[in-house]
TrEMBL record:
Biased composition, class Acidic residues, residue ranges: 173-183
Residue stretches of biased makeup (Low complexity): 159-172
Organism classification: Bacteria, Bacillati, Actinomycetota, Actinomycetes, Propionibacteriales
Region (Disordered): 154-192
Source organism: Nocardioides albidus
Top-rank lineage group of the source organism: Bacteria
Protein's UniProt name: SAF domain-containing protein
């Protein structure tokens, strides 16, 4: 007796069950990834914005003294972060050129931001141009327009210097003249620098002035008060000798 184990004529076998896939947009892992990427982008944008929270303002490329004209070639742009807008308004934005015909009303150091309070109109500033005649050996050879210098003054007729005409000084002078001479010598000995941190506004080439005077000519910018004091000092000395020391 045999038994048929097949199912060739019976009820067909049921199909295999398949798991229904969840749509990708409903996957919480997708949304978590989107949130992570979005948060990273926002955080990065904020960091970049904070790192670039600066403005560009004009600064001096070199040291300049009072009376120096503000020239484009003397300015460099620097990026600075200000605490508030009011502080930023005190300086010149590098997005715009500095107005023409401005001069410094005080000394400004190299790299210092150009403050609006440090400049004024050239026609309103009480600045005089004082010419100096200096022995070429008493002035650095690279002094030029824009250099900042100290001007030292001594009396060439002092005992430490060779007298111009030995044996004649004071022969015919009265007591008042002797007193003036002593005061002048004391001023010459104590003077120095007679002018500090002044700017050279003109420096003709040595060859242009030597043939006429035998000296190097410099023109410095000095305010009215110091210019008057300087002229009084020179007038009090018998033989004023000027020496130039260069700052920049």
């Amino acid at each position: 007796m045999s038994r048929d184990l097949g199912n060739s004529t019976g009820t067909p076998a049921p199909p295999l069950a398949h798991r229904v896939a969840r749509p990708a947009w409903r996957d919480p892992r997708l949304w978590f990834g989107v949130l992570l990427v979005t948060g990273s982008v926002v955080a990065g944008a904020r960091l970049l914005a904070a790192a670039d929270d600066t403005v560009s303002v004009w600064a001096m490329s070199g040291e300049r003294g009072a009376g120096s004209p503000v020239a484009v070639g003397d300015l460099v742009a620097q990026r600075v972060r200000f605490a508030d807008e009011a502080a930023m308004e005190r300086y010149f934005s590098a997005d715009e050129p500095v107005p023409d015909e401005l001069v410094l009303v005080r000394a400004v150091g190299e790299g210092e931001l150009l403050a609006r309070s440090a400049v004024g109109p050239a026609d309103e500033e009480a600045v005089l141009r004082v010419p100096l005649e200096v022995d070429p050996n008493r002035v650095p050879p690279d002094v030029a327009a824009g250099s900042v210098v100290d001007v030292w003054v001594t009396d060439g007729s002092s005992p430490d210097a060779a007298p111009a005409e030995a044996g004649k000084a004071g022969a015919d002078q009265d007591a008042d003249q002797d007193a003036d001479q002593d005061a002048g010598q004391d001023a010459g000995q104590d003077a120095g620098p007679a002018l500090s941190g002044v700017t050279v506004v003109a420096a003709p080439a040595y060859d242009d002035t030597f043939a006429v005077t035998g000296a190097r000519q410099l023109v410095v910018a000095v305010d009215d008060e110091r210019a008057a004091e300087f002229e009084q000092l020179l007038g009090a000395l018998q033989e004023p000798v000027i020496r130039i020391l260069q700052r920049s």
